Amino acid sequence: MQKIKVLVVDDSVxxxxxxxxxxxxxxxLEVIGTARNGEEAVSMVRRLKPDVITLDIDMPEMxxxxxxxxxxxxxxxxxxxxxxxxxxxxxxxxxxLQNGAVDxxxxxxxxxxxxxxxxxxxxxxxxxxxxxxxxxxLIVNNITDSKDDEGQKGNTQTGLARKFxxxxxxxxSTGGPKxxxxxxxxxxxxxxxxxxxxxxxxxxxxxxLADRLNRLSRVRVVEAEDNQTVLGGTVYIAPxxxxxxxxxxxxxxxxxxxxxxxxxxxxxxxxxLFNSISLLKSLKRHFILMTGMGSDGxxxxxxxxxxxxxxxxxxxxxTCIVYGMPRSAVExxxxxxxxxxxLITSKIMExxxxxxx
Length: 357
Hints:
Blueprint: E1 4-9, H1 13-24, E2 29-35, H2 38-48, E3 52-56, H3 64-74, E4 79-83, H4 87-98, E5 103-106, H5 113-131, H6 135-143, E6 166-172, H7 176-184, E7 195-199, H8 205-216, E8 220-223, E9 234-237, E10 243-249, E11 252-258, H9 270-278, E12 284-289, H10 298-306, E13 311-315, H11 325-331, E14 337-339, H12 344-351
Helix pairs in contact: 2-3, 4-8, 9-10, 10-11
């Protein structure tokens, strides 16, 4: 069997060696080269043609974000970002994911052997997963212009409604930040319904995701808070490590966050959110599953369909970075519409009747 060829990019000799050692523990993987900055990485990608790249963000001469853009323009390749657990690292990681990177891991620390083990398992798994992404899907997802939030004014909504008769929920995982960027930034400023989102992502990164989407979008985007009143025209991102549900109380809808056990290895879980929204039968409920590994959300979508969901939508295989979660729902026979990611917003406008307003 042919080995998966990996290029490791980091300005630190120690980190290049450490990442290479973690990768080559698995005999299915092979490190075919290491680069010390983005400029060197771009050259080596053209020459070595790796299957997957691990890419540091903060490097001299050409940083990881610049290298990412250049590589995706000239030789699209699955890229996994190495992120520092710092505010700047989180912001840069979200920008990288929305500009074409397929996934990320936190940089390993040499001080804790257990942390090294966790990073090793995650790194190997994500490299193998990334190597399976069809080239055409990478190209399609990179066609849309990457957005620059410098100078963005963000949304200008005022007087967000407490009363609404429809609600939308979205579940996504690997490739989700880019997909969410495509869908949410295309919504008009006067979109009147709330949207609740589960994106599989660790704590803090979900806050950076919400903040960046808020700067780029015409609707309001926030990281959800416990007991927060759900308002129309607002997108709520579930915080990392918390399940998100919605309850109706005293004529209002409120968000509830909790840390009950993981579901299928996830917290937040799409299934938990979908099951919660299924109970709100006074509302027209629309359920959407986009790119992601595994099957989280599929059973929740099937239950929602049985409970009278108005619409169920999945992203089509042609644009998914990983066609796991949508495929699982399609196989359960509970999907009304399957559409490419760039048409999901149009479908949302159609099924909610917004275009007829």
